[in-house]
Design a protein that fits this description.
The chain is built from 24 helices and 21 strands. With 582 residues, it is of the alpha/beta class. The chain folds into 4 domains: 132 residues, PAS domain (Beta-Lactamase, 2-Layer Sandwich), CATH 3.30.450; 104 residues, Beta-Lactamase (2-Layer Sandwich), CATH 3.30.450; 174 residues, P-loop containing nucleotide triphosphate hydrolases (Rossmann fold, 3-Layer(aba) Sandwich), CATH 3.40.50.300; 130 residues, Helicase, Ruva Protein, domain 3. Strand 4 and strand 5 form a beta hairpin.
């Protein structure tokens, strides 16, 4: 508890409260016996939305219509931790009467806006008067505090500060501060009226950090209040070090996130000189010069994601993040949390601290929504709101968050047909279809097949340390004749398979291509049974690696052979790892 000298009367105590109110985070008001406002501090002014000049002298009901402060005035009872709704704010208030002798002359309320600060629910132990309420507030708000009068004599000291000084709390009341606290300047501040903030002060061989504020009444300094910010300067140094470490970690995480969420392809990565692909690139370049939403349409494997990367890389948002999400690959019940994030405790299993959604991660950049045609209807409505309002609301959240994100969407389905069938929202379709780019299928640009085939071959030669010079004319003929339902992705896989099964040949020939590419009319060269068996074995190894995405243990299980046998055959046939491309 904080003890008050006998020289502090009820009137002087109220004056002391007025001087002290602006160093607390609590709002404080007081009324007289006629329920008129006689005191208000700056925190209360901010919470109630009034000024001291406009509020003093008004009936409290004009300021707070649902106040119960007059009940304290009438009954003389102390009310602790009472909840009060003030517009959209939740207020926690503690009220006590102001007593002079045996007469109630007013009431005082200490309150806090719980919508903006931590809920400081403190139990008041049957306080009898205003001084005990003030003591409790000072004890809870500050770690260490001392109050002196204008002559420098101590009138209040907190239990924490007395313990820090290794002094008896009650025994120092009334003593001059210079006789109690080593190297103090409290009496100097009380004399000069000049505040001192975050000032180092040596006590018992250690430095603490203290702030000293004069108490001014009617333009005259009547005392000073001292607050201990840090009991030891090492605490401050440790805090600074912790903050420095945290800042470095944040910058590191930012760098990692930026590295993971960036576009890796540009327009130079798009291979082809055919009329249709050149036209698509031209439209994409135009889209990159705008900030409008883009819809990429095309069959699976045509390179829609490649175009999305290139548009972002050439746009004004290229220094921002590029966030990708496949709407078809995420279960519908998880898609909302992935896109918009969630708050802590919003559902069972929610991470502590909540989670940022993809839209928030893409702030200032681009979000690529692949397979947007597979988005459920209820999520389409939520996405439409994001596009219209430019804001998202996390699951379990109470306030929307503004986002500055460009949307590039892609689909391999006919959205117009889905709209006609009622499976897709027409308003969302028009919102994302601002800049439409149609990416041609590979069968529509067969003049590019040879160029693409050599592009993939050059990359695979480097990857697998091969030295294959090219293709036979007959192999190119078969590649161009095929319809490529899997488009460029399928072509890439076929070339990779050929590179892995070729032995010492310098050219890829029809014998190195799958039968589906060659058709039923192609008859391969008749080889010895031993060679055919070895080729079949080699092909089986390659296909098992492809099916297991390069996992050798799984590939061996697929072939029902031991892992050691599998490794021996990989060495025998000079097979490198094969991973399926997506």
């Amino acid at each position: 508890m904080i003890n008050i000298g006998k020289e502090i009367t009820t009137s002087n105590l109220l004056e002391g409260i007025i001087a002290l109110t602006d160093i607390t985070e609590n709002g404080i008001i007081a009324i007289d016996r006629e329920s008129k406002l006689i005191m208000i501090n700056k925190v209360a002014e901010k919470i109630l939305g009034i000024s001291e000049r406009n509020g003093i002298g008004k009936n409290i009901f004009e300021i707070i219509p649902n106040t119960e402060l007059q009940d304290t005035l009438k009954t003389g009872e102390i009310y602790v931790n009472r909840r009060l709704e003030l517009g959209d704010r939740a207020i926690i208030t503690n009220r006590v009467p102001i007593i002079s002798g045996d007469e109630r002359i007013g009431a005082i309320s200490f309150f806090q806006d719980m919508t903006e600060h931590y809920n400081l629910k403190k139990e008041f132990d049957n306080e009898k008067n205003v001084s005990e309420v003030l003591n409790t507030i000072l004890e809870t708000v500050y770690d260490g505090i001392v109050v002196v009068n204008k002559e420098g004599y101590i009138t209040m000291i907190s239990k924490a500060y007395a313990k820090f000084l290794n002094l008896n709390q009650e025994g120092v009341i009334g003593k001059h501060v210079s006789k109690v606290i080593e190297n103090t300047r409290m009496h100097i501040v009380a004399k000069t009226g000049v505040a001192e903030y975050a000032d180092p002060q040596k006590i018992k061989g250690n430095y603490m950090i203290a702030t000293r504020i004069p108490i001014i009444k009617n333009g005259e300094v009547v005392g000073a209040v001292g607050k201990v910010l840090y009991k030891n300067i090492d605490e401050l140094n440790m805090l600074q070090k912790k903050i420095g470490i945290m800042e470095n970690q944040i910058e590191q995480y930012k760098g990692e996130i930026k590295q993971l969420n960036k576009a890796t392809y540009s327009f130079s990565s798009i291979i082809g000189n055919g009329n249709k692909i050149v036209e698509a690139i031209k439209h994409a370049r135009r889209a990159a010069n705008t900030d409008s939403n883009v819809l990429l349409i095309g069959e699976s494997g045509t390179g829609k994601e490649l175009f999305a990367h290139a548009i972002h890389q050439s746009s004004s948002r290229k220094y921002g993040p590029f966030i990708k999400i496949n709407c078809a690959a995420i279960p519908s019940e998880l898609l909302e949390s992935e896109l918009f994030g969630y708050e802590e405790g919003s559902f069972t299993g929610a991470k502590k601290g909540g989670k940022l959604g993809k839209f928030e991660l893409a702030e200032g950049g681009t979000i690529f929504l692949d397979e947007i045609g597979d988005m459920p209807l209820y999520m389409q409505a939520k996405l439409l709101r994001v596009i219209q309002e430019r804001e998202v609301e996390r699951i379990g959240g109470t306030r929307p968050r503004t986002v500055n994100v460009r949307i590039i969407a892609a689909t391999n389905v006919n959205l117009e047909e889905m709209v006609a069938q009622g499976k897709y929202r027409q308003d969302l379709y028009y919102r994302i279809n601002v800049f439409l780019i149609n990416i041609p299928a590979l069968r529509e640009r067969k003049e590019d097949i040879k160029t693409l085939a050599y592009h993939f071959l050059n990359s695979l030669n480097s990857k697998y340390f091969k030295n294959i010079e090219g293709y036979s004319e007959e192999a190119i003929k078969y590649l161009k004749r095929y319809e490529w339902p899997g488009n460029i992705r399928e072509l890439s896989n076929v070339i990779e398979r050929a590179v892995n099964i070729i032995d010492n040949d310098k050219l890829i020939t029809p014998e190195h291509l799958p039968q589906k590419i060659l058709g039923d009319d192609f008859i391969k060269e008749i080889k010895s049974l031993q060679i055919i068996l070895e080729e079949a074995e080699k092909n089986a190894i390659v296909e098992s690696l492809r099916a297991s995405k390069g996992n050798r243990t799984k590939a061996a299980k697929l072939l029902n052979i031991s892992r050691s046998t599998f490794y021996e055959k990989m060495i025998k046939f000079n097979i490198n790892e094969v991973k399926e491309k997506y």
